[in-house]
Amino acid sequence: MAQARYRKRMSRSDPRLYVPASETAFVEGQTVPLPPGQAHYLGNVMRQAVGSPVRVFNERDGEWSAEIAALKKDRGNVLLQHRERDPMPTEGVELLFAPLKRDATELVIRMGTELGVTRFRPVVTERTNTHRLNLERLAVIATEAAEQCERLDVPDIQTPESLRVVLAEWPKDRPLFAALERRPGERASVRAAALLIGPEGGFSDTEVEMLRRHGAVHALSLGPLVLRAETAVCAGLARLAAGAEGAA
Question: Residue 159 in contact with residue 121, Cβ under 8 Å?
Answer without folding.
Answer: no
